[in-house]
Each structure stands twice: as structure tokens, then as C-alpha cells.
Amino acid sequence: MAVPILELPIPQSAAATIAAIVDALKAAAGDPPKGRANFAKGRCVRGTYVPSDRAEEITRSLSFTKPSRVLARFSVDSSDANGADADNLALRGFGFRLGDRHHRSDILAQSAPVHFAKTLDQMLAFLKARSPGPDGNPDRERIKAFSAANPETLHQASYIAAHPLPRNFSGTTYWGVHSFPATNLAGETRFIKFKLAPVGADVAPAKSDVTANILDDDLEHRITSGDVRFSVMALLDRPGDPTTDVTIRWPDEDNREEVRLGTIVITGLEPDETCDASSFDPANLAEGIAHPPDEIFAARSAAYALSLAKRR
Ligand code: HEM
User: Which residues pair with 268 in a beta bridge?
Assistant: First the structure.
């Protein structure tokens, strides 16, 4: 399906909302002076990307059609960068950068296929509704009322509750969530969604909560045995798919035709400083993959830059 490629600048009015969202995320994480506003606990790693022989059918992006080194970070949506690993119902993140110096792309993916808000105003209101009151606890009635008025903000939590995660980063499936316009070698553009599908890892859900640092320890162990691999999948669009609402999946998304763009193999641990020195930037996409057309995506680059400035 041909799609127009629109890369709109952020409206001025959104800038204040973005700043307020970063503050609210940071406050929810306990205001760590040097920590990330979101996905604070994580592990920096390196690896390689090797394209499949079908990548060019989907995108001409040299990030995805050529082999390259990869810098990546596995993370947990934990409020404490030094705390225990979150439980098997906590959102996990997988951000990675691939491509050479002139054709870099950053993809940030998470362990749920939807985001919790459709617009920036809704995202800010969601976070505010959950902020602690004078007694230090969130107001349950306020959250209930917000959820009733904004039912789509529960889609992510419902997905997570129905899909407990395995006891490892390497067996977790991650989604890029947004609909990305992809242009192939023949110049045809269609929407794709990124899915990072584990290869050969134990994907069985953990029976109970995971304990302190089990995700980190497991990762170290599996990297040593060369066992952390992901297929980079492109889910293919169909006419009429919703491409601007990140709280809903495409119809029948789990049964979509998908093409493996390539494989990422994680080969070693990197010092935290390597990932902390900069930020993965969702807007950083080499030609051949364009910016998704939704409001949430348009805000992300500015939010990450703000967060980076605050934690420096
Ligand atoms: C589909 C939606 C989203 C996904 C999949 C996503 C995913 C992620 C991931 C994986 C990280 C960890 C990055 C790392 O390991 O370095 C992250 C961090 C972060 N996210 Fe998002 N995110 C989304 C939407 C947003 C939005 C809309 C905002 C704000 C407007 C936001 C604000 C942040 C911030 C401030 C950080 C910390 C960045 C840093 O300090 O480096 N995210 N996100």
C-alpha cells in the first residue's frame, strides 16, 4: 500500500506537554538525579546484525540491508536503576542502534505491542492520575475514574497481565509499536511494524515473580554461551490498518504476514557508560524507514533529549 511520508515538526504547544511528561515520568521513578526517566534499570550490550536475503523487499534502508555492529540496551520499567529486577508482569525494553556511521537507525521496542496513551495530553493525564497524594499513595478512586473515561489506556496493562514474561531478556518478544513507513529497493512504500522475536531461547512464562537480578545474571550467562539472538521481523500492513493510534493493534496482528529483515546476535556486555553517554533516539532512522505518522512518535525524540540533558 502506498503511503505518504510525513515528517512533521513538533507543534510549539506540544513542547510544554513533553517537558511535563518527562517530569512526571521522572517523578514516578523517584527523581533519580542521574537515572533515566523511564526504563531506568538496564544492561548495555553489543552485538552484530546480519540482514536476510529478503530485507530489500521491505526496505532499502542501509541500516537493515547491510551487516553492522549493534549497540543495545535491555531494560526493565523499574523505578530504581539499582533495584531488583522487576516481576514477570513489568514492561521490559530493548533499544538498539544498527547501521554504519552514515546510515544509523535506533529502534526502541518494548515487551507489549501497544502504548498506554493515544495522545500526549492523555499520556500526561494518565501519569498525573497515578501520582501519589499527600499520604504518599496514588488515589485509587481517581485512577478508576480516569480509566473509565479513557478505556484505551488500559490496553497495555491488559496485554501485560495476560502475557507473563519469561525469566530472561533473551526469550522476551519486543515490539516497536508504531507503524513505520518502509520503502523498498523498488521504491514502493508500505507500513510495517517491528517485532523482535527471540531465537532458540526459553520463552516459557515464569511461574512467579523473578528475583533480584535474575534477568541480568541470565543475560551474562547466555551471552557467554552465544545464546542471545533475535529475528528482526517486519509485520506487513493491510489496507485500512490503523496507523496513528498506538493503543490498538492492527486487526489479527499476530497472524500477519511477516518478513525477517535480519538477525541480531548479542555478543558481549558493554560498560553502562557506553549506553548512558547518549540516548537511543527514535527519530534516528536511515532513509528507507520513515517516521511513523502518530502524535506519540513525534514527541519521543524531544522527550529523550530532555531526559538525557537532565541525567547528565
Ligand atoms: C510506543 C511508545 C514507546 C516505547 C516503545 C518506548 C520505549 C522506551 C525504551 C525501550 C526506553 C529505554 C531506552 C534505553 O534503554 O536507553 C525508553 C526510555 C524513555 N522513554 Fe520511551 N517509549 C515510548 C514512548 C515514550 C513517550 C511518548 C515518551 C515521552 C513523551 C517517552 C519517554 C521516555 C524517556 C524520557 C525515556 C528515558 C530516556 C533516556 O533518559 O535515555 N517514551 N522508552
Answer: 46
